[in-house]
Amino acid sequence: MEEQQFRNKIQWFTFCSSLLVVWGHALNAELFLGNSPAAARLGQVERFLGNEIGQLAVPSFFMISAYLFYRNFNWSRLKGKWKSRCQSLVVPFLLWNGIYYLGYILASRIGGLTDVVGKGIIPVDWNNLFQAVFHYRYNYVFWYLYQLIWLVALTPVIYALLKRKETAALYLVIVSGLVWTAVNIPVINEDSLLYYSAAGYFAIHEKKKAEGARSSWHIRAGTAFVIAGLLCRILYGQTGAVGLLVLFRLFVPLGVWALVDQSRLWPVKAWMKDTFFLYAVHFAVVRLVNKTAAFLFPGDFLIAVFLFLAMPLLCVMLSVLAGKVMKTRVPFLWHLLTGGRNY
What we know:
The chain is mainly alpha-helical and 343 residues long. The chain has one domain. It is 76% helix and 0% strand. It contains 17 helices and no strands. It has helices spanning 2-25, 29-33, 37-53, 57-70, 78-107, 114-117, 126-135, 143-153, 155-162, 165-181, 190-205, 207-211, 216-239, 242-259, 275-296, 301-329, 331-337. Helix 1 runs antiparallel to helix 3 and helix 5 (78-107) crosses helix 7. The radius of gyration is 21 Å and the shape is globular.
């Protein structure tokens, strides 16, 4: 029963994080209202929901991915883990990037959509193809998947450092220092490495606490994490130290995870489980809907507000509908595009 509740909790957090990601990309005040005072007022609300709260989603994704990867991990499982992540990460990464590139090529050449795309005529050549497929040039949201692929590739190094508590503590301190001093690591984002490694530590050394039924310890720890995170955000606003912003985005999801009682969560619905597909398609939906609506209803404050608030629901509805069609008509393509994820 505890395993089922844990999996259900993971799916709830993943679904809610997906909604926050949509909100993070749904900001539309300037698109509809330009630089007007109304745009400034609406922009404040949108930035709070989309940037302040919405930006907690990606650290949550990194932490969930790391925890599931290192849960019950040992060296004998490395080959199998790499194989499964190749299917669930690398294949969808390449396919979706190619689809977005093709979509931009076509849309930029269709009358009426060229201005919506806003990038002129997209060139077709080998260099652009390479940048699109391997460096997500036309699929910006997949920077997360790009980072995750590299972090999985670094498993032998990360696990060797996390395996023992002593080296793990030192390693996390060093990574935190890299974040604080903004040292540039090739390819890897330092904040992504911190989120991923911190969750890996909990998976390896604190599994009982991370997965156990909520207790007084969880309430105390969760409250402490949330308060610490909020204090870091306040200090960031006063000092501008990026390290404090990263700690805010690390501590708050950890605190919320500890505070949520998994035994009280009702089972997720089937349509809530296809979060990878939602993540992959939402950016195109958000841009198309917002830009089209802004073109048809320029300066309309109420439509801007409605679309911003409703965008997560709209993206979920469209992705669920598309998913049902694909599962029925092209199941093999659905399997490839979602990385063979089984729920």
